[in-house]
Design a protein that fits this description.
The chain is built from twelve helices and ten strands. It has 297 residues and is an alpha/beta fold. It folds into two domains: 171 residues, Rossmann fold; 81 residues, no CATH class. The strands form two sheets. Strands 6-7-8-3-9-10 form a six-stranded mixed beta sheet, sandwiched between helices. A hairpin with a 2-residue loop joins strand 9 and strand 10. Helix 4 crosses helix 5, helix 5 crosses helix 7 and helix 9 runs parallel beside helix 12. The longest helix is centred in the last third of the chain and has 18 residues. The two termini are 29 Å apart.
């Protein structure tokens, strides 16, 4: 190849992507440690990870492993008597330790949002479900009553709620757990956040509805450009959605890597145990399909 031809290739738009072409980091956690102010016990120890725009990070571990405390620290909602004793959290390049109360009000919902395990605990049983969404839109986006209702109905359609107008005028006791979770997801994405945290969002649902919610999260990621953090004790749930997997035990990260690598070739004995225990719940389907894709490729 001539010198001129080499220059032409280098300047071509079709050049191989460089590290500078990678999506920006939207969430960066570095050496996060959380302790109990009574007794000084460390509950989360030096946890680090980064999330890029459009990426899905799965955090898996048994109850008490520290995964929920980690994301609560990210959201600035640690329980009373618990505190971030060291480490840093950056959301879109902003250091959360420097946030004022007003900053947190602005960031939650607008930049980072969350869906938790029991939607009924986060919804008001005495107010129409639709009005709970419109209130968020009117306060945070400044929409008129009419525009807020129209946007709420659009969001209900986006999360695949049948008959959005009917759901708008219903109360929490009139909907199933899966439908309530869809309403909560609609609220979580109402302000177009960059990052959505799903903390055991499918745990209380039956298998069929769980699969529907997982498909919905994946669809929303593609259509809305969300970056997802999926928290679960179920490795099969994490395997279905995640680009990277972070395995936690006793407040520490024991394994962290690309999802396919962690699932096919787990290095830590605890990860191996999780895979063995969850194979009968369908994990082998995801590992098997990945292996088939790799062999075809």
């Amino acid at each position: 190849m001539s010198r001129f031809a080499e220059t032409t290739v280098l300047e071509s738009p079709a050049r191989a992507p460089s590290p500078l072409d990678r999506p920006p980091i939207v969430l960066d956690v570095n050496d996060l440690t959380i302790r109990n102010s009574i007794g000084n016990a460390e509950l989360v120890k030096r946890v680090s990870f980064s999330l890029r725009r459009g990426q899905t990070l799965g955090i898996v571990g048994e109850s008490g492993s520290g995964k929920t405390l980690t994301v609560r620290a990210v959201l600035g909602i640690l329980p009373r008597l618990l505190e971030q004793s060291s480490g840093t959290i950056d959301i879109l390049g902003r250091r959360t330790s420097e946030f004022s109360k007003h900053d947190w009000v602005d960031v939650r919902g607008n930049t980072i949002s969350a869906v938790f395990q029991d939607p009924g605990s986060y919804l008001n049983p005495s107010i129409w479900l639709g009005r709970q969404v419109t209130e968020v839109l009117r306060v945070k986006k400044g929409l008129s009553r009419k525009d807020a209702k129209a946007e709420t109905l659009r969001l209900f359609e986006a999360v695949h709620l049948r008959n959005p107008q009917l759901v708008y005028e219903q109360f929490t006791h009139e909907l199933s757990g899966g439908m309530l979770q869809r309403v909560l997801i609609a609220i979580a994405i109402a302000l177009d956040p960059e990052v959505l945290i799903a903390d055991e969002a499918t745990t209380a649902l039956d298998v069929t509805v769980q699969a529907e919610i997982l498909d919905l999260l994946q669809e929303l990621q593609e259509t809305q450009g969300l970056s997802l953090v999926v928290i679960s004790h179920d490795l099969a749930v994490v395997a279905q959605l995640s680009d990277e997997v972070l395995v936690m035990r006793s407040g520490e990260i024991v394994e962290h890597g690309l999802a396919k690598q962690v699932l096919r070739h787990p290095r830590h004995e605890y990860t191996q145990l999780l895979i063995t225990e969850h194979e009968r719940f369908g994990l082998e389907h995801f590992i098997g399909s990945e292996r088939r894709e790799a062999s075809v490729g």
